[in-house]
Design a protein that fits this description.
Distance between the termini: 19 Å
Number of strands: 7
CATH topology: Rossmann fold
Number of helices: 10
CATH superfamily: NAD(P)-binding Rossmann-like Domain
Number of domains: 1
Oligomer: single chain
Length: 308
Protein backbone atom coordinates (compact mmCIF):
# COMPACT_ATOMS: atom_id res chain seq x y z
CA UNK A 1 0.00 0.00 0.00
CA UNK A 2 1.43 3.40 -0.95
CA UNK A 3 0.83 5.86 1.87
CA UNK A 4 3.12 8.57 0.56
CA UNK A 5 2.19 8.96 -3.11
CA UNK A 6 -1.39 9.94 -2.34
CA UNK A 7 -3.35 11.22 0.67
CA UNK A 8 -5.35 8.27 2.04
CA UNK A 9 -5.63 9.93 5.45
CA UNK A 10 -6.96 13.27 4.26
CA UNK A 11 -9.73 14.31 6.65
CA UNK A 12 -8.39 12.07 9.42
CA UNK A 13 -7.14 13.35 12.77
CA UNK A 14 -4.25 11.76 14.65
CA UNK A 15 -2.59 12.26 18.01
CA UNK A 16 1.01 11.14 18.44
CA UNK A 17 1.82 11.28 22.13
CA UNK A 18 5.57 11.49 22.43
CA UNK A 19 6.34 12.99 19.01
CA UNK A 20 9.45 14.96 19.86
CA UNK A 21 12.01 12.64 18.29
CA UNK A 22 12.70 9.09 17.16
CA UNK A 23 9.80 6.87 16.22
CA UNK A 24 7.22 9.37 17.43
CA UNK A 25 8.50 12.13 15.19
CA UNK A 26 8.70 9.82 12.19
CA UNK A 27 5.22 8.39 12.80
CA UNK A 28 3.78 11.89 13.02
CA UNK A 29 5.57 12.94 9.83
CA UNK A 30 4.44 9.89 7.84
CA UNK A 31 0.85 10.35 9.00
CA UNK A 32 1.16 13.93 7.75
CA UNK A 33 2.54 12.70 4.44
CA UNK A 34 -0.61 10.63 4.10
CA UNK A 35 -2.68 13.80 4.56
CA UNK A 36 -3.69 13.67 8.23
CA UNK A 37 -4.05 16.44 10.76
CA UNK A 38 -1.54 15.43 13.40
CA UNK A 39 -1.31 16.67 16.96
CA UNK A 40 2.31 16.24 18.09
CA UNK A 41 2.82 16.30 21.84
CA UNK A 42 5.82 16.10 24.12
CA UNK A 43 7.74 17.95 26.79
CA UNK A 44 10.58 19.48 24.77
CA UNK A 45 9.81 22.81 23.14
CA UNK A 46 11.87 25.66 21.78
CA UNK A 47 11.53 27.40 25.13
CA UNK A 48 12.03 24.40 27.44
CA UNK A 49 13.83 21.06 27.29
CA UNK A 50 12.65 17.98 29.12
CA UNK A 51 14.87 15.96 31.46
CA UNK A 52 16.16 14.19 28.34
CA UNK A 53 18.16 17.31 27.55
CA UNK A 54 17.88 16.75 23.80
CA UNK A 55 17.63 19.57 21.21
CA UNK A 56 14.68 18.16 19.24
CA UNK A 57 11.35 19.93 19.79
CA UNK A 58 7.68 19.30 19.10
CA UNK A 59 7.55 22.52 17.07
CA UNK A 60 10.10 21.03 14.67
CA UNK A 61 7.99 17.90 14.42
CA UNK A 62 4.88 19.93 13.57
CA UNK A 63 6.82 21.72 10.84
CA UNK A 64 7.94 18.39 9.39
CA UNK A 65 4.33 17.15 9.38
CA UNK A 66 3.15 20.22 7.49
CA UNK A 67 6.07 20.11 5.07
CA UNK A 68 5.22 16.48 4.31
CA UNK A 69 1.70 17.44 3.24
CA UNK A 70 -0.34 17.22 6.42
CA UNK A 71 -1.27 19.69 9.13
CA UNK A 72 1.05 19.66 12.12
CA UNK A 73 -0.07 21.02 15.49
CA UNK A 74 2.46 21.10 18.33
CA UNK A 75 1.11 21.07 21.89
CA UNK A 76 3.35 20.85 24.96
CA UNK A 77 2.01 18.06 27.17
CA UNK A 78 3.41 16.09 30.07
CA UNK A 79 1.41 12.89 29.73
CA UNK A 80 1.80 12.12 33.42
CA UNK A 81 -0.25 15.21 34.21
CA UNK A 82 -3.93 14.33 33.98
CA UNK A 83 -5.12 17.91 33.64
CA UNK A 84 -2.83 18.51 30.67
CA UNK A 85 -3.95 15.34 28.90
CA UNK A 86 -7.61 16.08 29.58
CA UNK A 87 -7.17 19.59 28.18
CA UNK A 88 -5.49 18.11 25.09
CA UNK A 89 -8.42 15.76 24.45
CA UNK A 90 -10.90 18.60 24.94
CA UNK A 91 -9.01 20.77 22.48
CA UNK A 92 -9.02 18.03 19.82
CA UNK A 93 -12.74 17.56 20.42
CA UNK A 94 -13.40 21.29 20.09
CA UNK A 95 -11.28 21.73 16.97
CA UNK A 96 -12.20 18.54 15.10
CA UNK A 97 -14.79 16.55 17.02
CA UNK A 98 -13.01 13.28 16.24
CA UNK A 99 -9.80 11.32 16.70
CA UNK A 100 -9.06 8.60 14.18
CA UNK A 101 -5.57 7.54 15.21
CA UNK A 102 -4.00 7.52 18.67
CA UNK A 103 -0.32 6.65 18.90
CA UNK A 104 1.00 6.10 22.43
CA UNK A 105 4.74 6.53 21.96
CA UNK A 106 5.75 8.22 25.23
CA UNK A 107 8.97 6.78 26.65
CA UNK A 108 11.59 9.34 27.70
CA UNK A 109 13.40 6.96 30.06
CA UNK A 110 16.69 6.27 28.29
CA UNK A 111 18.74 8.20 30.84
CA UNK A 112 17.08 6.39 33.75
CA UNK A 113 17.81 2.82 32.71
CA UNK A 114 20.68 1.10 34.52
CA UNK A 115 21.46 -1.36 31.76
CA UNK A 116 22.20 -4.82 33.15
CA UNK A 117 21.65 -3.69 36.76
CA UNK A 118 19.98 -6.35 38.87
CA UNK A 119 16.74 -5.28 40.53
CA UNK A 120 18.49 -4.84 43.89
CA UNK A 121 21.24 -2.78 42.25
CA UNK A 122 19.08 -0.52 40.09
CA UNK A 123 18.02 2.85 41.46
CA UNK A 124 14.52 2.22 42.77
CA UNK A 125 13.47 5.82 42.18
CA UNK A 126 14.67 5.69 38.58
CA UNK A 127 13.08 2.29 38.03
CA UNK A 128 9.69 3.34 39.31
CA UNK A 129 9.84 6.51 37.21
CA UNK A 130 10.59 4.36 34.15
CA UNK A 131 7.36 2.49 34.78
CA UNK A 132 5.43 5.72 35.23
CA UNK A 133 6.82 7.24 32.05
CA UNK A 134 6.42 4.09 29.97
CA UNK A 135 3.09 2.74 31.23
CA UNK A 136 1.16 5.35 33.22
CA UNK A 137 1.53 7.91 30.43
CA UNK A 138 -0.04 5.51 27.93
CA UNK A 139 -2.94 4.63 30.22
CA UNK A 140 -3.63 8.26 31.14
CA UNK A 141 -3.61 9.26 27.47
CA UNK A 142 -5.91 6.43 26.45
CA UNK A 143 -8.28 7.25 29.32
CA UNK A 144 -8.92 10.74 27.98
CA UNK A 145 -8.47 10.12 24.23
CA UNK A 146 -10.40 6.89 23.67
CA UNK A 147 -13.85 8.49 24.04
CA UNK A 148 -12.93 10.43 20.89
CA UNK A 149 -11.51 7.37 19.13
CA UNK A 150 -14.68 5.31 19.61
CA UNK A 151 -16.92 8.12 18.36
CA UNK A 152 -16.50 6.82 14.79
CA UNK A 153 -15.95 3.19 13.72
CA UNK A 154 -12.51 2.43 12.37
CA UNK A 155 -10.45 4.13 15.05
CA UNK A 156 -6.88 2.90 15.54
CA UNK A 157 -4.67 2.81 18.64
CA UNK A 158 -0.97 2.03 18.24
CA UNK A 159 1.06 1.20 21.33
CA UNK A 160 4.74 1.64 20.47
CA UNK A 161 7.10 -0.68 22.31
CA UNK A 162 10.42 -2.48 21.91
CA UNK A 163 10.27 -6.12 20.87
CA UNK A 164 7.51 -8.36 19.64
CA UNK A 165 5.42 -10.44 22.00
CA UNK A 166 7.00 -13.55 20.53
CA UNK A 167 10.51 -12.28 21.29
CA UNK A 168 9.87 -10.62 24.64
CA UNK A 169 7.92 -13.53 26.07
CA UNK A 170 10.97 -15.78 25.81
CA UNK A 171 13.83 -13.28 26.24
CA UNK A 172 14.70 -11.15 29.26
CA UNK A 173 14.85 -7.49 28.22
CA UNK A 174 17.09 -6.46 31.08
CA UNK A 175 16.93 -4.71 33.46
CA UNK A 176 13.68 -5.61 35.24
CA UNK A 177 12.14 -2.17 34.83
CA UNK A 178 12.81 -2.11 31.09
CA UNK A 179 11.45 -5.63 30.71
CA UNK A 180 8.26 -4.72 32.55
CA UNK A 181 7.81 -1.49 30.63
CA UNK A 182 8.11 -3.01 27.18
CA UNK A 183 6.12 -6.17 27.83
CA UNK A 184 3.37 -4.25 29.66
CA UNK A 185 2.77 -2.01 26.65
CA UNK A 186 2.18 -5.08 24.49
CA UNK A 187 -0.38 -6.37 26.96
CA UNK A 188 -1.97 -2.92 27.13
CA UNK A 189 -2.55 -3.05 23.37
CA UNK A 190 -4.17 -6.47 23.73
CA UNK A 191 -6.42 -5.26 26.56
CA UNK A 192 -7.52 -2.14 24.68
CA UNK A 193 -8.27 -4.28 21.63
CA UNK A 194 -10.91 -6.13 23.62
CA UNK A 195 -12.55 -2.89 24.76
CA UNK A 196 -12.41 -1.22 21.35
CA UNK A 197 -13.77 -4.14 19.33
CA UNK A 198 -17.47 -3.48 20.07
CA UNK A 199 -17.01 0.09 18.80
CA UNK A 200 -15.33 -0.92 15.56
CA UNK A 201 -11.91 0.10 16.84
CA UNK A 202 -8.52 -1.59 16.65
CA UNK A 203 -5.53 -1.58 18.99
CA UNK A 204 -2.11 -3.02 18.18
CA UNK A 205 1.38 -3.05 19.64
CA UNK A 206 4.11 -2.04 17.22
CA UNK A 207 7.87 -2.28 17.57
CA UNK A 208 10.61 -0.80 15.43
CA UNK A 209 13.71 -2.86 14.80
CA UNK A 210 17.13 -1.51 15.70
CA UNK A 211 16.24 2.09 15.04
CA UNK A 212 18.68 4.79 14.00
CA UNK A 213 17.13 7.45 16.21
CA UNK A 214 18.83 10.75 16.87
CA UNK A 215 20.11 9.41 20.19
CA UNK A 216 21.40 6.18 18.67
CA UNK A 217 23.28 8.01 15.94
CA UNK A 218 24.82 10.30 18.57
CA UNK A 219 25.73 7.28 20.68
CA UNK A 220 27.80 5.85 17.85
CA UNK A 221 29.14 9.25 16.77
CA UNK A 222 27.68 9.00 13.27
CA UNK A 223 25.00 10.64 11.17
CA UNK A 224 22.29 9.12 9.03
CA UNK A 225 24.57 9.64 6.03
CA UNK A 226 27.53 7.90 7.72
CA UNK A 227 25.78 5.31 9.88
CA UNK A 228 27.71 2.41 8.39
CA UNK A 229 30.84 3.82 10.03
CA UNK A 230 29.42 2.42 13.28
CA UNK A 231 29.73 -1.15 12.02
CA UNK A 232 33.36 -1.34 13.16
CA UNK A 233 32.13 -0.76 16.69
CA UNK A 234 28.88 -2.77 16.46
CA UNK A 235 28.70 -5.08 13.42
CA UNK A 236 25.06 -6.07 14.04
CA UNK A 237 24.08 -2.44 13.49
CA UNK A 238 23.99 -3.54 9.86
CA UNK A 239 20.33 -4.52 10.38
CA UNK A 240 19.35 -1.07 11.65
CA UNK A 241 16.55 1.00 10.17
CA UNK A 242 15.47 4.63 10.09
CA UNK A 243 12.58 5.91 12.23
CA UNK A 244 10.67 6.50 8.99
CA UNK A 245 10.28 2.74 8.58
CA UNK A 246 8.10 2.59 11.69
CA UNK A 247 6.32 5.75 10.59
CA UNK A 248 5.40 4.13 7.29
CA UNK A 249 4.15 1.07 9.14
CA UNK A 250 1.73 3.21 11.17
CA UNK A 251 0.59 5.16 8.11
CA UNK A 252 -0.10 1.88 6.31
CA UNK A 253 -2.12 0.55 9.25
CA UNK A 254 -4.09 3.79 9.51
CA UNK A 255 -4.96 3.71 5.81
CA UNK A 256 -5.98 0.04 5.79
CA UNK A 257 -9.78 -0.40 5.67
CA UNK A 258 -9.24 -3.93 7.00
CA UNK A 259 -6.94 -2.94 9.87
CA UNK A 260 -9.20 -4.81 12.31
CA UNK A 261 -7.54 -8.04 11.14
CA UNK A 262 -4.60 -7.03 13.35
CA UNK A 263 -6.67 -6.25 16.44
CA UNK A 264 -4.79 -7.14 19.63
CA UNK A 265 -1.70 -8.28 17.73
CA UNK A 266 1.95 -7.56 18.36
CA UNK A 267 3.47 -6.24 15.12
CA UNK A 268 6.83 -5.02 13.83
CA UNK A 269 7.92 -2.61 11.14
CA UNK A 270 9.86 -5.37 9.39
CA UNK A 271 6.94 -7.75 9.56
CA UNK A 272 4.47 -5.27 8.11
CA UNK A 273 6.69 -4.00 5.28
CA UNK A 274 6.13 -6.94 2.89
CA UNK A 275 2.41 -7.02 3.73
CA UNK A 276 1.82 -3.37 2.83
CA UNK A 277 4.62 -2.91 0.31
CA UNK A 278 6.48 -0.06 1.97
CA UNK A 279 10.26 0.17 2.37
CA UNK A 280 12.76 2.05 4.45
CA UNK A 281 14.13 5.27 2.94
CA UNK A 282 16.93 3.38 1.17
CA UNK A 283 14.49 1.00 -0.50
CA UNK A 284 15.35 -1.96 1.74
CA UNK A 285 13.06 -3.92 4.07
CA UNK A 286 15.06 -4.75 7.21
CA UNK A 287 13.51 -7.51 9.31
CA UNK A 288 15.36 -6.85 12.55
CA UNK A 289 13.55 -9.19 14.91
CA UNK A 290 14.02 -12.21 12.67
CA UNK A 291 17.68 -11.22 12.30
CA UNK A 292 18.15 -10.80 16.06
CA UNK A 293 16.67 -14.22 16.74
CA UNK A 294 18.42 -16.06 13.91
CA UNK A 295 21.78 -14.25 13.65
CA UNK A 296 22.59 -11.94 16.55
CA UNK A 297 21.39 -14.00 19.53
CA UNK A 298 23.01 -17.26 18.36
CA UNK A 299 26.33 -15.40 18.05
CA UNK A 300 26.70 -15.70 14.30
CA UNK A 301 28.81 -13.18 12.34
CA UNK A 302 26.96 -10.03 11.41
CA UNK A 303 25.46 -10.43 7.94
CA UNK A 304 22.15 -8.87 6.91
CA UNK A 305 21.96 -10.79 3.64
CA UNK A 306 18.42 -12.04 3.32
CA UNK A 307 17.22 -9.86 6.18
CA UNK A 308 16.92 -6.52 4.43
Amino acid sequence: MDTTGNKPLRGKVALVAGATRGAGRAIATELGAAGAVVYATGRSTRSRRSEMGRPETIEETAELITAAGGTGIAIPVDHLERDQVQALAERIDTEHGRLDVLVNDVWGSDLLVGWHDRVWEHSLDDGLRILRLAIDTHIITSHYALPLVIRNPGGLVVEVTDGTDDYNSSNYRNPVFYDLAKTSVIRLAFAQAQELRPYGGTAVALTPGWMRSEMMLDHYGVTEATWRDALDREPHFVISETPAYTGRAVAALAADPEVARWNGRSLSSGGLAPVYGFTDVDGSRPDAWRYIREVQDPGKPADATGYR
